[in-house]
């Protein structure tokens, strides 16, 4: 089995090689699938992300959500290597974090991970069991570690967002990993058995 480092390198390279036209068309397709899903339709407070390095672009979903009475939150990195989520609107002022990713400036409504309905998570690779490989810093696993502590936790729904080619046969799960409830790609849904 390939190491997480090898998988990251290979998948990030494939994402960077996508043409802008394909990326836009497939991002639109993926967002259309998302906005018609029960997970999205039932949610009021939705965490998204700003696309980086060839990740699927959720901008169409973000604009749809705000125009349909939902609140969109973006991750903001904290000093303790976790995340909080700050509300995003089309006119919010953004600032660049230490990884070069834009975050909403202070002053807006904030939520912690436990008080969201749906969290759309970026990833580098995933498998059919709901395991994911992220960028390697562990922010999502630390932020949502509370889900491992309860057997019957009902929220938030954690949905990975990826391109179909990022699916792997099997990803080795570590004790600190927080599994996904589902993954959405331009080709449809993958839900763990």
Automatic annotation (TrEMBL):
Its cofactor is Mg(2+). It catalyses: (6S)-5-formyl-5,6,7,8-tetrahydrofolate + ATP = (6R)-5,10-methenyltetrahydrofolate + ADP + phosphate. It comes from the Bacteria. One of its GO terms (molecular function) is 5-formyltetrahydrofolate cyclo-ligase activity. InterPro entries: FTHF_cligase (IPR002698), FTHF_cligase-like_sf (IPR024185), NagB/RpiA_transferase-like (IPR037171). Keywords: ATP-binding, Ligase, Magnesium, Metal-binding, Nucleotide-binding. Its EC number is 6.3.3.2. It holds the Pfam family 5-FTHF_cyc-lig. SUPFAM superfamilies: NagB/RpiA/CoA transferase-like. The keyword rRNA-binding does not apply. Belongs to the 5-formyltetrahydrofolate cyclo-ligase family. PANTHER family: 5-FORMYLTETRAHYDROFOLATE CYCLO-LIGASE, ATPASE INHIBITOR/5-FORMYLTETRAHYDROFOLATE CYCLO-LIGASE. This is 5-formyltetrahydrofolate cyclo-ligase.
